[in-house]
Amino acid sequence: MLSISLEEFLIWKKKQLSKGGDQQSFAILLDCIGGLSASDLNLMSINLEGKLHLKNKLDFLESVWDDHLLNFCPIQYLCGITFWRDLKLKVTNKVLIPRPETELIIDIVFNLFRRKSEKLFFTELGTGSGAISIALALAYPSSDGVATDIDQDALEIATKNFINSSKQSNLKFYCGNWWSPLESFKGKIDLAISNPPYIPKDTYDKLPKEVKNFEPKVALLGGEDGLTHIRKIIQKAPLFLKEKGWLILENHFDQGEQVKQLLLKNQFTSIEIVKDLSGIGRFTIGRYK
Ligand SMILES: C[S@@+](CC[C@H](N)C(=O)[O-])C[C@H]1O[C@@H](n2cnc3c(N)ncnc32)[C@H](O)[C@@H]1O
């Protein structure tokens, strides 16, 4: 541990932020590489005389910050960590950095299944870092979940994240194409969730560098119109869901109406387009018959 004065730290912090970047990314750097959490910093600001203790030298933190600013590499990949709801998750460039707007999926589930003692059998298709499935497995400890991904490297990260977040054993991981690893669960699923790749080709081509150059293409690109994977997931969902089972999908900001039509065509009822905190129809949910 290195000890420096609060004054020295605050001057250094001001200099770093004057180079660019946002407060939230800087907070991730301080927490993960500096060992200083947001609550540590709040306590420090009350005690201006104090010293603070860092896990690494300021020069090292600065070199990581410069790398982030100069090369557009997301700070989460440089630090190897992200925060999502109340989880601290390991991330590498093999997984999408779970987005804050996706956090709302968990609240949608809480509205559908209000009792935390519920014995659900849930699945997540395309789990990436495992964020959604891990949050659900922890929130519904009597439930069982299976999470899939096409990418074995992503599943290894998701598995580590589950082990690091919990002592529970109610979540299993399977590798494969959408529903295909779940053949033995046909007709048994109460709730299926997916935040699939849904970005249309022309939008993908114009994504900002920090996304396009670093995050996995397989996690983002949804084919020409963005709906290639959503179509596949919806078409097969009736085989796997129980009667009255729910499907929750995240979609691109303008796909809600098309996803609703796909659900209607496949015998879903109670369909609703759910807005995110910016008022965008980000999720489409429905019940199989
Ligand atoms: C948008 S990311 C979502 C990751 C994570 N669920 C989240 O919300 O942060 C989509 C995920 O789907 C996976 N994926 C892409 N194509 C797939 C396929 N054909 N079958 C299964 N998973 C797939 C990707 O590897 C990626 O992890």
What count of helical segments does DSSP give?
Answer: 12
The N- to C-terminal Cα distance equals 59 Å
Taken from the alpha-carbon principal axes, the silhouette is elongated
Number of domains: 2
CATH topology of the largest domain: Rossmann fold
From the 3D coordinates, which CATH architecture of the largest domain would you assign? 3-Layer(aba) Sandwich
The radius of gyration over CA amounts to: 21 Å
How do the strands line up in the largest sheet?
A: 7-6-5-8-9-11-10
Tell me the number of strands: 11
- Would you list the SSEs in sequence order as H and E? EHHHEHHEEHEHEHEEHHHEHEE
The CATH homologous superfamily of the largest domain is termed Vaccinia Virus protein VP39
Contiguous runs where pLDDT drops below 50 for at least 5 residues: none
